[in-house]
Amino acid sequence: MDCLRIRNLALEREKNGARFTLLVPDLALRPGQALGIVGQSGCGKSTLLDILALILRPGRAEEFTCALGGNGRRNLFSATDNTLASIRGRDIGYVLQSGGLLSFLSVRANILLPGKLLGLRKKTLLERMDFLTQRLGITDQLDKKPQHLSGGQRQRAAIARALIHSPGLVLADEPTAAVDRETAADIFAIFRDMAKLSGVTQVVVSHDAPLLRRFSDLTAGFSLEKTGGNSVVSTLVSPNAGEAA
Amino acid sequence: MKGARIAALALQDASHEWRLSLCMIMAIAAIASPLLLFFGLKYGTVETLRSRLLHNPSTLELLPVTDKLLNADWFARWRENPRTAFLVPHTRKLSAQADIAPAGSGAPLSRVDIQPTMPGDILLTRFNAPVPGKDECVLTDRAAALAGVKTGDAITMQVTRENARVKAAHNFTVAGVLPPRAGALPAAYILLEQLEAIEDFKDGRAVPAFGWPGSDPLAYPVFPSLLLFFPDPDKSALDPVREALLVQNTGFSFLEKLDREELAAAGLFSAGEGYRLKTSGAPADAQNIAAVRDKLRGKNLLILPEAYPQLRLDIITGPDASSGNSRDPARGCASISLKPGAAYAISDSAGNAPVEAGLPPAADSSAWASLTAAPALFEILVSETLPEKLSPTGTATGDAGKGLTAEVRAVFAGDVSGETRAVTFQALLRPAPGTPEQTALLPLALLGSLNLLEQRPLLYGPTNEKPSGGSKALLLGRRGYSGFRMYASNLESVAPLAQALEEEGIRVNTRADRIDEVLQLNKYLNLLFWVIAAASLSGGTACLLSSIYANVERKRRDLAVLRLLGVHGGALVIFPLVSGFILTLGGFALGLAIFHALSAAINFLFSASLEPGESFCLLTGFHQIAALGLAISLALLAGLAASRRAAIIDPAESLRDE
């Protein structure tokens, strides 16, 4: 069963007089599948990720549903803000470009935060954190503040935070944008391993198409079409199988 | 749960960015501390002034500025007034001065005012001084300094009269010394009765209790009217010139012609026609009667003085043994009321008594000559049956025919004022043939003296002057007091009491103007405070609002991350609210600490002008809690405004900053 299903979804945005329309004709992801999204700047990668992260509502959608966390299929298009926030907190993990860690919390507190916000048992959380941080190799960084970590370490900590509460879907927005290629490959590998290990569906956005293809089951891109002076329509092209598949 | 977690995150954020937090805290303290200090100064100063006014009895004092004779009933009535806290009579001011010096020192004398006191004197108790007992005094600070004495020392108090030709002294023990705030004048507080003794001495009277010499205040006879009648039934009238002379320079104002029937109604059955000579206002004294007698010389007109109709005599004896009951159960006594009359025997030239009463004959001249004498035992003529009625309980002196001694109470029941005065004395009741049943015939001197009850109290007590020293006589009682020292029960009672006294014709001085000044000062300072507070609070609110709002803006990315982690907008508003609360609490605490340090310094600097327990700069616990409540309310208000921004943060926008 698909854990995420989108059909004919559209989002229109207008900024500084320029109109941008994102169209997703069809997208379906199964549990544990890794989708890599590539594309040039301004094609709507991050916008798609925000829609998937439920922090942007599409303008229309024939179908925009998910089946995460064993709660059955839920209509995300018509869900209330609070429901979306609840799904976001419980079933989705998010890795931002530079980690998105809270600077006033230690790495440990950052990693534990999603679990604590969900009210998960402390023991379970600590065991899960030990497992993740050992696998991510940041066990000795836990007491540090994020600003005292390297870019790679921050991303590892962000991955641990995204996975601490065992979400069904993990989204990563340019997770390797701020690190060198070697570290990027390392991060992708760890991310991929950890996701596979947890059986979590991944959606990763990146400029680095070769790297993304290496570590994704599916890859998808966008086709851009200028429909007027300042109007652009970006359509998600149906995913193809990646090298990892 | 989520809310508590967000609050904890806000705390961790404030702690993490402690430098910024400290700056905010100091900014808030910079607003709070001057406000607290200003309010503390306003409250402390006004409260100190108010407290001094409230606790200084002189604020509650009402001092008469006009002399008016006030009797015991007046004082009793005003003491019952709930607005009156303390009231003590005062003698004439001129009589209330004395010279004091340490006892036996020979040191120069210092002139002090003597103030009367009695138990309950709030001036003394307020300043922790005892109410002096007999032969004790409490001095003001100035008086003690002048005399060079302290509590426990003995002083000699000297009083003089007749231009200091007559001096007398008495020793007092200093029971206490009042602080300077109790009064700047040199004064000594002594018991009222001892001040009365000083006044008596200054009035020329003896004061046996102090061994001071002087005269006895013997009661003297006065009469409101005289009956003038011709013993010769054929004579009926004086010539008009003589009639006119009787009301000129005699003390009498009215002459009323009486026929036989009218004289008979007055008890003179065998007389010819006559007159009633009446006074208006003050009754006639012996001198007035002498003037009348002089003007009637050679007219063969007899004079019979009259008593006030309100005067009665109660003959009181022991328990009524004959009936086994008592007619006056409270005292176990029997009493019979009689109308007093003059036991004045008149005889005509033939030696026949023209008066139906059949009194023992006595010379006209000798009866009037004894008018001022004070007999040791008054002899009262009563009906022949009266001693028998009283004899079972009376004490016979010799044979029963000579009468018995009894306690006699003369009562004057005022018909206008309702005031009743009485004096009780010992008298010999002697039955006399012809005396009417309900009448007691008194010697002229006694009847006239009892007439004085209309004007003033009388006492029956021992005399001091020789040759009658030690024997009892009717003495003049105190008519009243010319002043008083009164204290209202509280500030609010001062004005109503003053008004009520003025309605009785007694003008008083109060400190109402001072009370009003403090209340006005409080009002103006309040106004000033609120103007400054309003300006500061608006500035403070703007500062707080902008700081918290800026904090939200600064934390936009973090708040967006929290939204990404599933925190919805409703829970997210807790973050700025808690931030504002923490910063305000810190700022207020710092401001309060600064206030306490500065107020301690101010109070220390002015400590010389403050009494224990007083502060120029003061905030009560209630004020501090109220100020904290206000600050937190403002912080929450500012936090709420800022939290609106937090609630509408678009994570998609904020996270793009990444």
First and last CA, distance of chain A: 18 Å
Which term fits the overall shape of chain B? elongated
Give Rg of chain B in angstroms: 43 Å
Task: Please report the two chains with the greatest interface, counting residues with C-beta closer than 8 angstroms to the partner's C-beta.
Answer: A-B, 32 and 27 residues
- Rg of chain A, Cα atoms, Å: 18 Å
What does this protein look like?
The complex is a heterodimer of chains A (245) and B (658). By secondary structure, chain A is α/β, with parallel strands linked by helices. Chain A has a single domain (4-241), classed as 3-Layer(aba) Sandwich (Rossmann fold), CATH 3.40.50.300. Helix content of chain A is 34%, strand content 27%. Chain A has helices at residues 45-52, 81-91, 107-118, 122-136, 151-163, 181-198, 209-215; strands at residues 4-15, 18-29, 34-37, 60-66, 74-75, 92-95, 169-173, 201-205, 218-220, 222-226, 231-236, 240-241. Chain A has a six-stranded mixed sheet, covered by helices on one side. A six-stranded mixed sheet of chain A has the order 6-7-8-3-9-12, with helices on both faces. In chain A, strand 1 and strand 2 (18-29) form a beta hairpin. In chain A, helix 3 packs across helix 4 (122-136), helix 3 (107-118) runs parallel beside helix 5 (151-163) and helix 4 (122-136) packs antiparallel against helix 5. Chain B is of the alpha+beta class and 658 residues long. Chain B has three domains: 2-55 and 514-655, no CATH class; 62-214 and 481-510, no CATH class; 222-476, no CATH class. Helix content of chain B is 39%, strand content 22%. In chain B, strands 15, 16, 17, 18, 19, 20 and 21 form a seven-stranded mixed sheet that branches. In chain B, helix 2 packs across helix 17 (574-605) and helix 14 packs antiparallel against helix 17 (574-605). The longest helix of chain B has 43 residues, at 512-554. Chain B starts with a helix and ends with a helix. The model of chain B is unreliable at 320-332, 345-366 and 393-400 (pLDDT under 50). The A-B interface holds A 46-47, 50, 53, 55-56, 81-82, 85-86, 88-90, 94, 96-98, 100-105, 109, 113-114, 116-119, 145, 173 and B 1-2, 5, 9, 12-13, 15-17, 557-558, 561-570, 650-652, 655-656, 658.
